[in-house]
Amino acid sequence: MRVVPSRNLLLWVALLGVLALVLLLLEVPRRYVVWITAGTVASAIVAAVLDFVLSRHLWRKANVRFARRLPPAFAIGAARDVRVTLEQEGAASWSCELYDHVDSSVTANGLPQRLALSTGKRVEAGYSVTPTRRGEITFARAEARVRSRYGLW
Question: What tens digit of pLDDT does each residue of 80-121 get?
Fold first, then answer.
């Protein structure tokens, strides 16, 4: 599982830097600025770690299943639909972006897909692929970029 900070977390870090700068420009004693900044950074780190741990725990409990339905045959230059299904059993809803890694010999339209996974529901989505050369078409594992519960990751 790869963890990427969200824009919210990066914005929060930037605001902390601006706060420290403003305090220094207002000639607040440096030791107070250090303590305020250190306390705020420590709080941000704790919040981010808790968000990650909670999100990872809930995601694992969700037991998300992915299935891909391919057309029976592909023809060069003819667009064909690929259908994907995601289903989860967890108690939390999730928003994610689905990246299905298609073969390099096809062009794909409609990826990535933004999806909302509701509790106990099946979500179906699709995209089209157009083969550009002859030969076997293989699909790698799909990936989902999932937002953490509080949006920090």
Answer: 999 999 999 888 899 999 999 998 899 999 999 999 998 888
Tens digit of each residue's pLDDT (9 = 90 or more) over 33-48: 999 999 998 999 999 9
- Please write down the HEC assignment for all residues of the chain: CCCCCCHHHHHHHHHHHHHHHHHHHCCCCHHHHHHHHHHHHHHHHHHHHHHHHHHHHHHHHHCCEEEEECCCCCCCCCCEEEEEEEECCCCCCEEEEEECCCCCCEEEECCCEEEEECCCCEEEEEEEEEECCCCCCCCCCCEEEECCCCCCC
Distance of alpha carbon 68 from alpha carbon 81, whole angstroms: 11
Please give the model's pTM, rounded to 2 decimal places: 0.75
